[in-house]
Amino acid sequence: MPAPADAPAASADAAELQTSITCSRGFSQWLALHGCSLAFTSYQTGQLFLVGVLPNGALSIHQRNFVRAMGLIGDAQRLLLAGLAQIWRFENVLGPDERANENFDKLYVPRRGQTVSDLDVHELGIDTAGRLLFVNTKYSCLATDSVAHSFKPVWRPSFISKLAPEDRCHLNGLAMENGVPRFVTAVSTTDIVDGWRNERRDGGVVVDVETDEIVAEGLSMPHSPRLHNGALWFLDSGNGYLTRLDLESRMRERVTFCPGFLRGLSFHDGHAIVGLSLARREGVFSGLNLQDELDKRRADAWCGLQVINTANGDIVEWLRLEGGIKELFDVRVLPGVRCPMALPTFGPELASFITIEAPDKPLAERGWHRPAQ
Known about the structure:
Layout: E1 19-23, H1 27-33, E2 36-42, E3 47-53, E4 59-65, E5 72-74, E6 78-82, E7 86-92, E8 106-115, E9 121-126, E10 132-136, E11 141-144, E12 152-155, E13 171-177, E14 180-186, E15 204-208, E16 214-219, E17 222-228, E18 231-236, E19 241-245, E20 252-257, E21 261-268, E22 271-277, H2 289-296, E23 303-309, E24 315-323, E25 331-335, E26 340-342, H3 348-351
């Protein structure tokens, strides 16, 4: 199936966004060996990246622009992406034996854009009823979309006294388990407008959604909670550590130090894929232990992805971005996908790309078909 040509790895419209992408020698082989590709977002420059392997074994980097690209979930058939004011749903339109532009085995086409307005949406999830759930950071709650309204709240931490557009605790991460929201991360338990900024160094918590219990505290700007192999994993971002929490003993283990501010975590075949951002010395990144850790190791922060062996904490592969892109937000493994691409949400490429679903019966057969109830 023909499709628009692959986008460049950096925007050609703005020289300041030009980015050099390098990777470890075995990165593309790791993707091919483990039968997956990767998707990650940069809210700073507003981009979605799809990383796969071309038929000749070379690495494929496909990029599309989305204003404030944040939370991301997906699989071989569907992607959902949070942007500035919309949450986008993309569907793969290729069959098992079809290819776009001869190389791409998945072509994700935007089919729905749910306008939620600027809620500072962070991470996403899908519950057992198929509802979209999202972290509504501006209102310090979990929410779902609404037919008529910007959102419908479904849960808020017990330490938040009211729904208000005040980003009181900087709720940011969501761990789902079998279609049920289980844990969230927040930078603090403050209940006042923008109160979390004074708690960045050690005010972070992980909260059990069902019981409202704080299961981990004293963290530095935690992000990306995930349940994996019976443990809760999260990023202790302000300290620079991928961390594992035993839910029975409540013992925490620092698995790996990564040289950057961590956001975005996904698991596949005994490995964790972590997103790293440059640790700015000003603003919300200032005063964190992360810079002390980097100085102690005589290291500089960098932006990119690292693939970590969860058994021993070794970093086995990496992908690095240098230049205009300095901060990432989310990363997801796409199992069973070799080389993905996506269409934009507007413009001639989308307008001229039309696919047709097969009818339920030949159109020559008269009589209205009533869908099954």
